[in-house]
Amino acid sequence: MAVRAMLAMEARQEAELPRDKGWQFEPKWDGFRCLAIRDGDTVEMLSRSGKSLARYFPDMVAALRALKAKRFILDGELAIPVGKVLSFDALQLRLHPAASRVNKLAAETPSILIVFDLLQTARGADLASRPLSERRTALEAFFATLGNTSALRLSPATDKRADAERWLKRAGGGELDGVVAKRLDEPYRAGERAMVKVKCLRTADCVVGGFRYATNSKQVASLLLGLFNEEGKLDHVGFTSGITSEERPGLTRKVEALKGGPGFTGDAPGGPSRWSTERSAQWEPLKLELVAEVQYDHVTGDRFRHGTRFVRWRPDKRPDQCTLEQLRQEVRPSRLFVRQKGRTARAGVAL
Asked: How far apart are CA 53 and CA 270, in angstroms?
């Protein structure tokens, strides 16, 4: 079995969920995409890019090896429950070069695999060429044989757009990253953007605590965003960029007029992390006067997961009104880890 050549089916982003019939909707979980492959005693776990995740998740390798089924290919999302939500930060900590550190984390915060597709059965039958409707039926039958295992969860699925809209409203903080739509009559199209994904976009009002110049330039490249914590200190929560060449001169003059302020008085940009670069610490602190409304799609650990999109300035809002509570209200725990079996449930993780 040439597992190294396998790639996961991917999704293209759209503004809304499909409205015509013939679609299956699934939650888009907040984790690492993973193809879990077993062939006898050999277990492999491949990321979206085709790289092995096995060394970082020895707990999941052991869980897959312990299943009665000796052969299968599952498509799912690796996640780590911490409390009542999924922690993307805990997943990132697993990507550590030291095996001793990885093993310690695996024991402290075990991972789960939320499964949404079956590409090969326990008898070795190839399902990738079969329509999703058949693969889902086979997946539910596969789960019915697993017995008592807490490491694997069956992801919910529905053909009702109203259910998907309800899931979409929950997305953005701690569990769901959006909703995915797949054609019920299509095969598994490995490596292709054959699915549709939709994210719930929200806005927040943030203080501009600093900025970075563009490389080898004296024009602004990005604005650094902050929100006040419970102690009244300004924590760095992310950035907004995507500034056009026409906007740069005016924006540069606007922020340079405020240079010399306190900037971030709490968590500041450029703190040590495995993603830090020399440029991470190069930023200009500002007087805390500018408030910007930005659009974002996901929050992790009181920070925007990705860069945000600038919406507008908010001169009508005081900086001290911009607090972390805007982000924390998005993290809503649910009855996430209830395992169910059988076709009537159509789910293994309750929402």
From this structure: 28
